[in-house]
Amino acid sequence: MELCERKAATIALVRGTDLDMSTPAGILVADVMGATARHEIKQKSDRQRRAQQQAAEQGKPAGGRRAFGYGSDGVTVNEAEARHVREAFADVMHGASLKGIARRWNDAQALTTAGNLWTHGTVRGVLKNPRYAGLRTYRGEVVGPAVWPALIDEDTFEAVRAILSVPERRTTLTTARKYLLPGLALCWKCGSDCATGHTRHGKRVYVCRANKCISRKADDVDALVEAVIVERLSRPDAGDLLATDNRDELRELQGKAAGIRQRLDDLATGLEEGVLTLAAVRKSSERLRNELRRVEVEMAATVHTDALGPLVDAQDVAAAWSALDVQQRRGAVDALMRVTLLKPETGRRDFDPASVRIDWRAP
């Protein structure tokens, strides 16, 4: 309209009177018609927004591409995919990595609903989505229960979300995450933890990180530690090693986290309404966010990691151990024992199991 006014053009409408933009009357009519159109657009947008909000409050699906684990209607459970989702939540509770879960889903040909391979990022998106706990969200906030069946309970969802929110959790596979004992095995002489390395012949070894006091063949040490764990967890009293139930503590921490998030929302509302200044909101929100991070760390520590659960409950512990990823195995080692690499007997070339000291942790 502005261009037509500058060029004194005439707008010829297919259904309506021509608008001569070189005259005040033509410009007035064009302005009125434009204002009417904008009004209609805003009304339509408002109706759509209200309809979406109403659907959210009623717990109805939002539409769009279907969620993994559900059918195209957003309500019917796709059992083949739902099984993977439930297992993933349980695996994270037991110390599994997101990359390991993504790899397992890809190997099973359980691709995303867009037909793509899974990554640790897309798996994280699934595990932090409240819909799997049967909750409906609107504009990123939970507004109530959903009409579709939940695949996991709310306590499990909150626990996994806390684990994934901990800043210390890394998604990059470092050397320590690729092998069993780096950072866990200790040097007999100086007490430093051991790192993984390689000899000039390509053999993997554990080396004292601080002073290089000791170097031991890693495969032999790993095999011994794994055999000891499988034997211990195959005993009838293996259940005594499980952590006690911390659900009450977890619920208390969840309540604290919810309260902090509500206070953050109140700060945003106060700023929007002009009750609070930007400087005051920034100062208070920074303090609350730090407090929220501390609570989330406590929540993660409460549930993370009962790494022995999948092993203690297994009929075949050796097979269950083989099915775990490296991160889960490391969690089991850390929960059960402290491994110290001793100085081997002088002149002995074969592996001596007595050169690895295992001290069992108290249950």
Short description, anyone?
This protein is mainly alpha-helical and 363 residues long. It has helices spanning 2-7, 24-57, 79-93, 98-107, 120-127, 154-165, 175-178, 218-233, 247-272, 278-303, 309-312, 317-323, 326-336; strands at 10-11, 19-20, 135-138, 141-145, 186-187, 194-198, 204-208, 215-217, 337-341, 356-360. It folds into 4 domains: 2-57, no CATH class; 79-165, Putative Large Serine Recombinase, Chain B, Domain 2 (Hect, E3 ligase catalytic domain fold, Alpha-Beta Complex), CATH 3.90.1750.20; 175-243 and 311-360, no CATH class; 247-303.
Looking across the biggest beta sheet, what order are the strands in? 5-9-10
Number of domains: 4
Report the portion of residues in β strands.
5-15%
Total of helices: 13
Overall average residue pLDDT = 84
Radius of gyration: 30 Å
| Helix/strand class | mainly alpha
Description of the molecule:
The protein has 363 residues and is mainly alpha-helical. It folds into four domains: 2-57, no CATH class; 79-165, Putative Large Serine Recombinase, Chain B, Domain 2 (Hect, E3 ligase catalytic domain fold), CATH 3.90.1750; 175-243 and 311-360, no CATH class; 247-303. It has 13 helices and ten strands. The strands form four sheets. The protein has a three-stranded mixed β-sheet. Strands 6-7-8 form a three-stranded antiparallel β-sheet. Residues 41-68 are annotated as: Disordered. Residues 1-59 form the Resolvase/invertase-type recombinase catalytic domain. Residues 67-170 form the Recombinase domain. InterPro entries: DNA_bind_recomb_sf, DNA_bind_recombinase_dom, Resolv_N, Resolvase-like_N_sf, SSR_resolvase.
